Amino acid sequence: MFFQLSSFSGRHRSPTTWSSKSCVSAGFRYHGGNMIATDTDASELLLRHYVFEALIAAKDRSPLWDQVQFWEDSFLDSVAAERDAVGMDQGPAEMIHRYDSLTPSEKKRLEEDEDKLLADMLSNAIAFMIMMKLPKPEVKRKVRRLLGRSHIGLVYSQEVNDLLDQINNLHGNDIDLKPSGSKRMRKHSFVVHAGTDTKGDVLFMEVCDDCVIIRSGSGAVCDRCWYERLINMTYCPKTKVLCLSRRLTSTTRLDKYYTKKCRELYFCIKESMEKAATRQKNGISGEPELGGEFPIQDVKSGQGGLLQVTMEGVGLKFSQSKVCKC
Fold first, then answer.
1. Closest Cα to residue 137, out of 125, 129, 147, 148?
2. For the chain, which end, N or C, has fewer CB atoms within 10 Å of the first or last residue's CB respectively?
């Protein structure tokens, strides 16, 4: 069977009706700050089994899930792990020094990145608490305390408050989890040697959105080269050496790295720097939301329908037939 997108399908539409994820759903899903009505297909739900359903349905349900201190500790641990994964906790003195040297717009972007990390982790914590049937008054009380202690800005704290306002209508895994920033980081890794030949220490160079991270063989961060401090970058295809000149507090520093993929590394860093400059100029931050609905038409029968893209997969929905998912 072949389908074609309708002539007006170029416009992305927000989803109107999605399918329920589990049998404990109350007929809604919370995704991207919106309450979305769901269709309940009993035959489809019978094919899905989630671990949390067994944990909350068991007669000997663990009292651990009712301990609010457990959820607070889990939130703090997840924030610490995420901050370490994205590099916010590595070299704090260097990070503070860099923050002081940034422009007001760059400082605001970093502050928003921090707020987003905390808000996403807190939203996921709410999702897990609702999933494990923690009493909802306790959820609201604990989350609001954590929200105050986290000092999240108004924009992202409002997102958390909007979710809290809707939890009375949400059950099970109705709240879609937010992907962590560390999972969405675009990193390219290269194996390099310190110096001008293979006699130097083996290092791993990661090209990130706003800097180049140099790690040791054990994975520990050895150095970080911020793009705004990079003065000059050259490479020699004959010797396969990449040279990075950067500005320090009162001096300049030249580092040389040997790698067989010298040319690829050079252009990878160059492309990342150009994207960082464009992002800073246009004030672009964050990631686009994925998913939605697109009008389609069955080429054979001429019947119109919707192509639904969700986190669970792609569905084809027609008025005179059942939803076909893949």
1. 129
2. C
Phi, psi for 183 (deg, rounded to 5): -75, -20
Dump pLDDT digits (tens) for 7-25: 434 444 444 557 777 777 7
**Which among 53, 33, 98, 285 is positioned nearest to 184, based on CA atoms?**
285
**Distances in whole angstroms, Cα of residue 21 to Cα of each of 45, 149, 320:** 7, 33, 23
Tokens describing residue 81: 């792990």
Encoding tokens for residue 2?
């072949």
Cα 240 to Cα 37, 216, 235, distances in angstroms:
58, 20, 7
Rounded mean pLDDT of 138-160?
Answer: 92
- The helix (run of H) or strand (run of E) holding residue 252 is strand 252-258
Tell me which amino acid residue 87 is.
G
Under a CB-based contact definition with an 8 Å cutoff, are residues 317 and 302 in contact?
A: no
- CA–CA distance, 99 with 88 (Å, rounded to integer): 12
Nearest one of 190, 206, 275 to 240, comparing CA atoms: 190
Given its phi and psi angles, is residue 26 left (phi above 0), alpha (psi -120 to 50 degrees) or beta? alpha
DSSP 220-251: -EEEEEEGGGEEEEEEETTTTEEEEEEE-SSS
313-318: strand order across its sheet:
3-5, 292-298, 304-310, 313-318, 321-325
Tell me which H or E stretch contains 71. helix 68-86
Distance, C-alpha 76 to centroid of its chain = 18
**How do residues 21-75 score in pLDDT, each as one tens digit?**
777 777 788 888 888 887 766 555 556 778 888 888 777 788 899 999 999 999 9
Place of tokens 């409002």: 158
Contact 238, 258 (CB under 8 A): no
Lowest-confidence pick of 5-14, 89-98, 148-157, 251-260? 5-14
3-class DSSP assignment, residue 47: coil
Residues 6+ apart with CB under 8 A from 60: none
